[in-house]
Design goal:
Layout: H1 13-21, H2 27-42, H3 47-64, H4 69-90, H5 100-110, H6 115-122, H7 130-142, H8 146-149, H9 157-169
Amino acid sequence: MDEPNLNLSSWSIESLETHMVGLQCGQELERIRTVAQSHVYRSVQSRDVRLRWAKLSLAANGRFHGDGLWEQARMRRQEFALRTWVIEHLGTDVDPDWNPEALANDTLAALSLEPRRAESVAAGWRDLPIEQIGDLRRHKNLTAHIDRLMPSLPSGPIKDQLASWASVRRHLP
């Protein structure tokens, strides 16, 4: 009797895509996300195949996380990091996932504070209630990729907003 191959890193992309179809939640989605992401980062396959792996990673990431603030922030942070890496290393594309301006807009949409407000609140962060500290921390995590994204953006208001966040980010807890 053949034993099932639990080493997902040896599975083909087609097998992982099929396997993921029935999954709604759980660690198996996280395993698929990380395996797919490793194929994006380390593969010698073509750009198109690596982008397909990246799409699989994004899909698993989107389904793995719950609706809580921290879970959604973690999901977005992982999504933003992968999308930024793809843009940097595999190039931009008309697909919104690999479009720097779309990623910049998605980043700004994920932030609930304006940069100046975040900076002023962060000035006395040690005296803030834990919930506010958490909010500032989520903003810091959600903007971790922007220094790497900005060189891919044209000059304009979106890039200026991200530059403001890049400046403020170092002051966040």
